[in-house]
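Is iron/sulfur cluster placement plausible here? Inputs below.
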Amino acid sequence: MPIHEKSLIRPENLIEHKDLFIDGIDVSGHWSTFINSRALTDYDESMQEEIAALPGGENIHRCWQCGSCTNACTVNALNPDFNPRYWIYLIRNGMKQELLLDKDIVWQCVSCNKCTYACPRDVNPEGVMKATAHWLELKGHTEKKPSMIFDEGFSQQIIETGKIEDGLVIRQFFARTGQKLAQNWLVAMAIGLAKRLPVAMGIKMGFAAVFHPRTRGWSRARAAIKDYVHEREAANRKALGLPTGEDGR
Ligand code: SF4
Ligand code: SF4
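Reply from A.M.:
I modeled the complex. Tokens:
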């Protein structure tokens, strides 16, 4: 069959013939490219259910494949392979092997939520991207990605202190991901901020960077949040049939 948009087909599924004669007719050349036929036998019927059980993935079943999410997506504009609509299609059809081909870019969602506002079915595609990235990690298909490392550091600081100190979040993130702190963009931003920031605010930020202040009377809230996080993580693992760590199960 003729192929109108070759870029949408993986190169390994294309068959091109430099020299091809059919019934004595020369059909060599670019236009006679064929798509490799294939039979899918490895459907994973539990994949949609498992991703729907993770926070953010709850409404994946509502998707009607209109493509508005991908159309609005910030990352898709930079990298056409980042395609929320397509991944939701794969998940809903249990096409795990196809999804795994893109496992190293799913985490790149920047949580801008443009897709969420564009979606006519309230699927929350941003949440589905997060749930999918989380699923890939919990199932051992990918190692912990930078977005997860950032989220963990951010949450950990809120849970421990009841406050966010941006400088500490960034320093810890760079340390945990093996990156140098003196990034060019960060230095430029710090210089720009130093020029514009009111002196009182600069002093306040410097104080926070050194003393890491905590919210007063935070201990009860901290204990309650830790219990909730622990419960939630156990529930996520249970939904995926993984050991929860409780009672050795
Ligand atoms: S939240 Fe993620 S998936 Fe949605 S538009 Fe932004 S980058 Fe794309
Ligand atoms: S915008 Fe919503 S309904 Fe449309 S493809 Fe994306 S997730 Fe599905």
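Short version: The pocket of iron/sulfur cluster (ligand 2) is lined by residues 63-69, 85, 88, 118-121, 123, 125 (CB under 6 Å).
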